[in-house]
Amino acid sequence: MPAPQLVDLHLILRDGGRVLMGLRQNTGFADGRYHLPAGHLEHGETIVAGAIREAREELGIEVDPADLALVHVMHHHSGRLALFFEARRWSGKITNAEPDKCQSLDWLASGRLPENAVAYARAALAMIDSGCNVGAFGWDGAEPI
After folding, report:
1. Which of 53, 109, 113, 144, by CA, is between 20 and 30 Å from 126?
2. Would residue 123 count as lying in a domain?
3. CATH number of the domain where residue 12 is located
4. How many domains does the chain have?
5. In sequence order, what DSSP letters do the residues of 90-135 get, joined into one string?
6. What CA–CA distance (Å, rounded) separates 64 from 48?
7. For residue 95, what are the CA distances in angstroms to 60, 69, 76?
C-alpha cells in the first residue's frame, strides 16, 4: 500500500475578531513565529478525530465533533494538504499544554496578524474570512514560511 500523503490539521478558535495562535519554539519549523494550533494526521485516525486529538494535546480542551467544522482546504506546493477546522465551542480551559514547543498562546486580531505569523496560516485565515474554502499556497515558486 502506498504511503498516505501528509495531512496537516489546523485548529481555529475565535473570540470575537480575535484568533488563538501560538508562538512556536524548539520545533525546527517556524520557531519565533505565530501559528495556529496544528499537527499531523496520524495513521488510522479520521481527520475529525485528529483535530480533536490536537485540541486536547496542544490546548488541553475537548471539542465535540458536532462543534467542529472544516472551513478550508489548502494545497501547499510542497505536496502537503492542510485542513483548517474551526471549533465553534469547546470545553475546558485553554492552556499551553506543550510549553516546550509553544512559548505562549495569544489571542490576535485576525485581520491584523503580526509580521511574524506563518505566511500560509495568514493566507488561509484571509481566504476563510473572505468566504473562500479551498486554496493553494506557494505555487508561484516562492516558499515563504
Report:
1. 53
2. yes
3. 3.90.79.10
4. 1
5. -BS----S-TTTEEEEEEEETTS--TTB-HHHHHHHHHHHTT--EE
6. 10
7. 6, 22, 29
pLDDT tens profile 65-121: 999 999 999 998 888 899 999 999 999 999 999 999 999 999 999 889 999 999 999
Does 1 reside within a domain? no
Residue 16 inside a domain? The answer is yes
More confidently predicted of 101 and 138: 101
d(CA 83, CA 133): 10
Contact 107, 19 (CB under 8 A): yes
Contact 68, 86 (CB under 8 A): yes
Pair 128, 110: CB distance under 8 Å: no
For 51, phi then psi, to 5°, come to -65, -40
Please state the pTM of the whole predicted model.
0.92
Note whether residue 144 is domain-resident: no
